[in-house]
Amino acid sequence: MLVNDKAVLVEDFKMDKISTKDLNQKLKSLNVDKLRHVVLVSENATVFKSSANLKNVTTLKAHSLNVETLVRADVLLVENESMKLLTERVLGSN
């Protein structure tokens, strides 16, 4: 469960093309590729399409993240842009 300090802020996945293999390599570099429930929060369409064939990865936009998904996650990966949106969502925009 995510309650064990398993949240990671990722600068950006910087994917030039849709590639499940490339995304899986990035997950391996973060040592999360073998976990059962990886939640990736990204606004990047290339990341969404690249993760479609990874059964252990759930990719969501910041506005779609919910408590149920967080509870099930072994690790939460959040891109910088998505973190800003989540912060605005939680704290409200000024």
Structural overview:
The protein has 94 residues and is α/β, with parallel strands linked by helices. The model has no long low-confidence stretch (mean pLDDT 87). The protein is globular, with a radius of gyration of 13 Å. It starts with 6 loop residues before the first strand and ends with a helix. The protein has a 4-stranded parallel β-sheet. It has one domain: Ribosomal protein L4/L1 (Ribosomal Protein L4, Chain: A), CATH 3.40.1370.
Give a quick set of tags describing it.
globular; ribonucleoprotein; ribosomal protein; four-stranded parallel β-sheet; 4 strands; Ribosomal Protein L4, Chain: A; Ribosomal_uL4; 94 residues; alpha/beta
Question: Would you spell out the secondary-structure blueprint of this structure?
Answer:
Blueprint: E1 7-10, H1 20-29, E2 38-41, H2 45-51, E3 57-60, H3 67-72, E4 75-79, H4 80-91
Parallel strand pairs: 1-4, 2-3, 2-4
In the residues, how many domains can be counted?
A: 1
Provide the CATH superfamily: Ribosomal protein L4/L1
How much is the average pLDDT?
A: 87
Helix/sheet category: alpha/beta
Main sheet makeup: 4 strands, parallel
Structure summarized in a few sentences:
Keywords: Ribonucleoprotein, Ribosomal protein. The protein has 94 residues and is α/β, with parallel strands linked by helices. The chain has helices spanning 20-29, 45-51, 67-72, 80-91, and strands spanning 7-10, 38-41, 57-60, 75-79.
